[in-house]
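Lab notes, practical 5.
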Amino acid sequence: MPRSVNAVAKRARRKKVLKQAKGYFGRRKNVWTVAKNAVDKAMLYAYRDRKANKRNFRSLWISRINAAARLHGLSYSQFMGKVKANEIELNRKVLADLAMNHPDAFKTVVDKIK
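Output from the prediction step:
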């Protein structure tokens, strides 16, 4: 019996990877072995950086809240401690947005916890 190869599936797999490599420089976009390695590495970076992105945003929010709280005579840790103690259900994302875009609303939060 002749050897059977599934060329259709193989070609589809390769086309999918080459499509993902579109826009890469040099042989990374059109040579199968190079493109496969480049796409694998890119996927690893994407997975890792989705997690890192969350950490980066949290630290950005903390910096913004700290700067705004210090304008009202509180450190970040004092401010967040009082927010939790007064059972204000605002997360860091919302507090940072208030601090940046609505300083008067942030001031009312500070006045409420003092």
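Observations recorded by the TA: Residues 60 and 96 are 8 Å apart (CA to CA). The chain has one domain: 8-113.
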